[in-house]
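Worked example 4.2. Below are the chains of a multi-component assembly; read each line carefully before continuing.
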Amino acid sequence: MDILITGLILGGTYALIAMGLNLQYGVSRIMNLANGEMLVIGGFTAFALYTAGQVSPLLTIFIVAPVAYVLNWLVYRIMLRPLVKRAKSRGMLEQDAILTTFGLSFVMVGLMLWAFGGDYFSYSYLARPVVIFGDNFGLNRVVAFGCAALLCAGLYLWLNVSRAGMAIRAVAVSPENARLVGIDVPKLSARAFALGGAVTAVGGAVISTFLTLDASTGVMFTMKALIIVIMGGVGDVRGTILAALVLGLGETLVATFIDPGLTLAAAYALFIAILLFRPQGFFGRKPT
Amino acid sequence: MKRRTFFKATTLLAASLVAGAAMAADPIIVGAVAPKTGPLAGGAAVTHWPNIALWVKEVNERGGLTVGGEQRMLEVIEYDDQTNPAETIKAVQRLATQDDADIILAPYSTGLNLAAAPIFDRLGFPQITSSAATDQIGELSAQFNDMFFLLGRSSDLAEDAVEVLAELREAGEIGNRVAMVNVADAFGIELAAVGKPALEAAGFELVYETSYPLGTPDLSPIMKAAKAAEPDAFVAWSYPPDTFGLTEQAMIEELNVKAFYTAVATAFPAYGGRFGAAAEGVMGIGGVNTASPAFQDYAARLEAATGSKPDYWASGMMYASLQILEEAIETTGTLDMAEVTQFIKDNSFETVMGTIDFDDENNNTAYWTVGQWQGGEFKGIKETGREGAVAPILKTGWE
Amino acid sequence: MKRGDLSNLAWGAALLVLAALLPLTGDGYLISLGVTIAMYTVLATSWALFSGPTHYISLATAAFFGVGTYVTGAGIDHLPYWTLLPIAAVVGGVLAALVGLATLRLSGVYFVIFTLGLAEMTRQVVTWYQNKTGHKGTYVLTDLTDNDIYWQLVALAGLVFLIGWAVGRSRLGFALRIIGDDEDVARHVGINTALSKVALFIVSGAVAAVVGAIIAPRYVYIEPSTAFTPMLSFQVVIMALLGGTGRLWGPLVGVIPFTLLWEAISSSFPNQTTLLLGLSFLAIVYLLPGGFVGLWDRVKHRSARRRALA
Amino acid sequence: MTAVVKLSGATKQFGGLVAVDNVSFEVQEHQVLGLIGPNGSGKSTTLNLISGALPVTDGDIALRGREITGLPAREIARKGVARTFQLVRLLPSMNVVENVMAGAVFGHRRRWGASAERHAKHVLETVGIADKARSHVSQLTYIDTKRVELARALAGEPEVLLLDEWLAGLNPTELTEGIDLIHRLRDEGRTIILVEHVMDAIRSLCDACVVMSSGKKIAEGSTEAVLSDPEVIRAYLGDDDA
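Applying the procedure described above to all four chains together yields the following structure tokens:
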């Protein structure tokens, strides 16, 4: 039981890391290698506000989200839109996006170093045990899981019920056809990208309550997020949630029953195995 | 080189405000290479860079280093090696040949120092490492004559931690059951490889033992399993992110052992800052004599000058390495590095960490191995010849 | 063999000899730059041998490179150095073959992420194994200088160019171009697409492993974080794409300016290195689509048109 | 005499949908067989089964009496089945002669180097665009792209040629040229299976026809007989017009 809960909680963390990228890659077709840096920026904001003014990270997210939204919207409009326009094919856009966002990740790390230095930022928030079914869990992780659940449920409902959400899903499925039914694809792509960035930054703020970050750690999160998104299937919220939970449970199971030294290796092995048997991920459509 | 003139202009401007007399002499060019980005940037930002800033500031405020009867200002050229040994090598080369550096400071971390060792050796520059812990000191100093080691042998660091536990056990304070974990990365593996046989040789019962990869996001399965094994002592050969993570998990799991040890970064001020009173009684790698006026004075100056607090392990050693270099240069009165190196080998030095004297293998044999958080400071409790060790206390819960 | 081929070979050999003369300058700084350039030339060119025609972006370079450094790290105390290079090649090649057979049916971004995961997984397995066996640090203490390492890399570069040149003229090279254009067509004209791709993937994997094995003595102390650094994979891709993968010499013209730019930025702006690298990187993507080869082709195309008009 | 291609009970299911349902027919040496039927009747899928683009769910396919069922496309190509695609697929980074060489180098009969190039040029002459050998494929007219693709298929000297709506989309002049071209191939004695909608072409080119509707074979026989079969007409035009 406690393994199950531990795994689920870790899965929630992973969902926070990956959900934003899923929107960015699934809808806007931008494989954003600067995703992890956006997460670290969210985490840093939470750290700064908490240490400076004892502002709860859970309140910080209401500042982080709109700011990150605007920033990412600008990034898309200014930097990525021209690439989308000039790309002749999906493959070319992917290649350009990899290069651009890789450069962007450098710029963001550089800005963070310049502004805040390279030190670890680490603080203690809600680091006390909470008892669930007779076992101890970190309150901050449980809270993070709650945030992840709310965020995922919210996104899922919004994408499936609201008009804008449906339009975004239409773009995810087929930008060409979405255009034909009168959806403003560039506008929605920008919004989805911005929303993805906001979600990632919020995730970073929440995660910083229990993970120690520094300006250079972003790439680790980018890699995890990429793996989860690909495992779940591009452009499907359910897939990402499922993949995050599977990964969380898998790592916890391996850590508990086999050898904690193999958790990360097992995570990659799981990812590789899933890709081999289901190259399009859990919920993905066949890659074209 | 445009940059050089720019640097020169700014340092000279700053210098002239403090000591106008120094204008006459050419500055001494000090080269510094260490991570500002990459995985080790966080550690270097605590332990390495602030010391260089402090040293240069203080020396220049004094009017510079006296070389050959002439006071010369220091001019630093800093390079970021991105935690990449290839960049370290390139940057040291660049300092030596393009920037004509008079002094090159040792890089940061075991790996980067060793990558740079062949060039320092070829250049004939002394490389006083303050953040390299290795067991190959004999072989290394035989191959690289100019390489000095301040931080000691990794085996001592691990063995002494075990010794502290053994002493607590002999005193009847703790039982015989030890849970040991380690991060599966270079230094963590090395420490565990020494620590495990040491624990066994000391007659401890290893009730739980495992490793975990660097960057494990959730350490709770490990802590749960460790707790389930009901240990009397918990030992983790850990690295910065997981040192924090393991401590937090121990609090959450209410792992109430009487001896709790985490390795690298326990001595960081950020550790005490994050865990506050809960850190009381936590043991870790390193330590200093916090009661020594020299260290207290150094800590105060560092914070005043750079805004950052020293860590209680390698920071002081880093500053000591600069003091040694300074004394060697000023006493010999030359920038001839062969002479400076020989002076370092032949003499002993008074530093913020106490007297330092290198042995035949260029090793500083007296260093701190284990420290413990006591009353908001990380005090040295075990050493290989330092004064001021305090007695260890037992960990009493996490409140 | 045509006359043009002969002259190309002669030019290549001449340039190689010229490159090999660099250590004679005795300038340690130039040589350390040379090592960087030679290393990335080998890695990017061998990367492009596979990824250029097939358009499969592989981020597995670090996996092979890391395995190579560990071959040297583990073997240096037991075997003569020279035997370690072929061993590294075999180990890298076998790893590439296994990975290739398993994954080359993945397409596009799936392959990209897979290879990224592979590098991490290899790293995890290597550290796990070291931990199991109670390893006490991997030291590679040799008498090899930067000059020796440089010459080895230049020789390897020569070999890679020769392989690339031979592949380009072979059925295999033609098959890969067809695969890159349209894999379905390739299958239907009778090409064993999987085998062709794996063959080239093995070449690039083996070469990267040998590079790792050659570089290991330079690092002295082998750590997983530096041996398997994901940055290496990204840099190789970026340099190759900056040069352009359409031609054998493409990656080379990417590696040289990129290394020099990198060097200029890190030496002139040590505190803003990362920021400025990122910015110049973006500038390259926006101003030089298709890399230098693309630029070259456009210029050639334009002048050809002008000539046609005149 | 064994048939060049023989299908026995070939079946292809996509999930619940049976696209090709238990279809059997044979093609003899030097025969041109038309595979006809309304849209969505499974003709192109049948062609894909023969070429190995899709694996069969059930049934057997043989080439000159040797089983090719379940073989990958490249093996089938090497054994002597060459095809064109419904939507022309040329190799965009290559010029015309290189496109054709792709077939000559890797097809049924393999050539390399100068010999492959000579052969490719020869085939280009056959299809009537030898003068454009060095052109880039992006500069070609529509019918010329079709010619190149046909030449690529021919270059491997296949046992049987599969043409998937090769004449579709051509304007009237081009159509005449196209039909003439295939006529020449037929006169050379090649074995061809063509999926086609253009009735004139079917009448003038095909020795025999197989008619499919909703995945099933509904008629088979000489072109004339098949085209006058009331059931075929009904399948094509719907019940109202019959």
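Take a moment to check your reading of the output against the notes. The radius of gyration of chain A is 18 Å. The CA atoms of residues 168 and 271 of chain A lie 27 Å apart.
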